[in-house]
Design a protein that fits this description.
By secondary structure, the protein is mainly α. The chain is built from 16 helices and no strands. The chain is globular, with a radius of gyration of 24 Å.
């Protein structure tokens, strides 16, 4: 078997194994959440018999390991279960499937992530390459100072500053990203401008600095010195010689930040009241809707693992030692 294929298969196996252990951590963590859904719905005046009957109806009376294997078995078949929302002790079931709840919210989060990535990735690569090209110049120091300032501030602070400047003092963009399924595309883009700008400022700094560091590290290599001795321009040296060999670390940084766009948007979605999966998870935790919380957490974990697997595979297939084994 070719070394690349065997290495990729090993990474995929480790990815599935990691997801399995993460699912155990997710289920165990939710078990330790304070409060109980049945008590939250029925209230403190409910009798023990009513609470026990309601728990039995929801399947919460089963041992934890039985509920875990029931849940993970259903997820393996594509069934995320039924939401507890809408359930009542009267026997009337108005609940919706978790997939029905998560689907539109996940689409909204992916739209915001894609909108941010389209702006952030080219901008970060451009800033990183030009900062490496003009290393130690005023431009390089200015870019580093700005990116260090943005990366040192938490997301909610950046979001509130943008709301203050671009929505309150200068009403250019709306402060709330209250989009719906019927919102036209360009109106959706307009309403998502501030959340996307917030995420862009947060992730550009990290991607730009890692791109700059990767290219500067390669500029000390002997083959780069040879390219310079041939009289090639600095831009040609970086774009045609240094950048292709820097794709592996850059791909890892891009994948890590793209994973953050899906996994770490909870705070941004809450600030802008954006109907994404992060906001859904916060609401589900508040109402003790266990199936929805489990599904959202598992989607976050799977997204993070998949994107990191893609970055690993890119670094593997661009490794000359594996492409041309002796």
């Amino acid at each position: 078997m070719h070394p690349i294929l065997s290495t990729v298969l090993q990474r995929l196996g480790l990815g599935f194994l990691t997801l399995f252990f993460v699912s155990i951590i997710i289920f165990s963590s939710i078990e330790f959440l304070p409060g109980d859904f049945t008590e939250a719905v029925l209230g403190q005046t409910a009798t023990e018999e009513t609470v026990a009957a309601f728990r039995r109806e929801l399947g919460l009376d089963k041992p934890a390991y039985v509920r875990y294997f029931d849940w993970i078995g259903s997820v393996a078949t594509g069934d995320l279960g039924q939401s507890f929302s809408g359930r009542a002790s009267s026997g009337v079931d108005r609940s919706r499937s978790v997939a029905e709840l998560v689907g539109p919210r996940l689409a909204n989060t992916l739209f915001l992530a894609a909108m941010t990535a389209i702006i952030a990735v080219p901008l970060a690569l451009t800033l990183g390459i030009t900062a490496a090209l003009y290393r130690n110049s005023i431009y390089d120091r200015s870019v580093n100072a700005v990116t260090l300032s943005t990366i040192s501030m938490p997301e909610f602070l950046v979001a509130y500053l943008l709301i203050l400047i671009l929505a309150s003092l200068n009403p250019i963009f709306p402060s709330l990203a209250n989009v719906t399924a019927d919102t036209p595309f360009w109106e959706r883009v307009y309403k998502c401008s501030l959340p996307a700008l917030t995420l862009t400022l947060v992730i550009v700094a990290h991607m730009m600095r890692m791109t700059r560091a990767a290219i500067i590290n390669l500029l000390a290599s002997p083959y780069i010195e040879m390219a310079r001795l041939k009289g090639l321009s600095p831009a040609t040296v970086i774009l045609k010689h240094a950048l292709p060999n820097a794709w592996a670390p850059i791909a890892n940084v891009i994948a890590f930040n793209l994973a953050y766009l899906v996994v770490g948007v909870v705070v941004v979605e809450v600030v802008f009241v954006y109907p994404g999966i992060g906001q859904l998870m916060v609401d589900a935790v508040t109402t003790r809707d266990i199936p929805v919380v489990q599904a959202c957490a598992l989607i976050f974990a799977a997204t993070y693992i998949i994107l990191n697997l893609i970055a690993d595979i890119i670094s593997i297939v661009t490794n000359p030692r594996l492409l041309h084994p002796r």
